[in-house]
Amino acid sequence: MLSDLGSTQHVRNLWITGYGDFWSNSASRRQKPLSSLSLWASATFSTESSNQPGSSNGADVLTLRATRRKLNLSLIGVTLVLNGSWPVWSRTAILAEEELKLERYTDPEQGFTLLKPPSYTKVEKAGATVLFEEMKKTSNNVGVVVNPVRLSTLTEFGTPEFVADKLIQAEKRKESTKEAEVIWAKERSGRGGLPVYEFEYRVDSTRGGIKRIFTAAFVSSKKLYLLNIVHSDNPENPLDGGTRVMLEEVLHSFDIAPVT
Fold first, then answer.
1. What are the residue ranges in the chain where pLDDT is below 70?
2. What DSSP designation does 138 have?
């Protein structure tokens, strides 16, 4: 989704033709959200044009320290191998290894935090609160959009499954989409018990081929926070296990920023 839109006007058009119907219908039984609920669409940005690196805007970036995790990984690995639990250890090893590479990004002004791969650089893009692109392949990206809403919690939109179904229907209505399917949808608890919805999509598009899209969303202080992670998954170069685990960690790390 993040790489399928080419301009701000395209975002507005998608809101009118697709996502707008979903949010309008969802709100028919309650107070209607602000028109800015096009955020699900406005969280998608084209990466076909060149981008200039932006300033940090006061965001705090911290590199995760790994010494203790390496020691824990070694102990866990030995125990699980001796117990014959290699598949579990294998995932644990991948997870710990990828965690060592992730960096903490916090936006104190907007009030959110997440982990990001160090190979992803920050770029400026219209409509994005923050956008990171992989240096060697800019169509792989991690983006966040924050927009005001009139609702107090994400659950007022519906269940994760309901939201995922409506979003994938909107995705299918895009001219560039050849095929789209939801892989899974679930809810987790963020900081302070905040409801966070997470989704995984698989989209086959005429613009960039097959992509895996991981999305997380939550509502806090009358603002909707949306994270989209897009990565290519074409048959000739499929998404590998290590990268997938890393992207899932980015997904699960999206949360409101701690109060300092």
1. 1-100
2. T
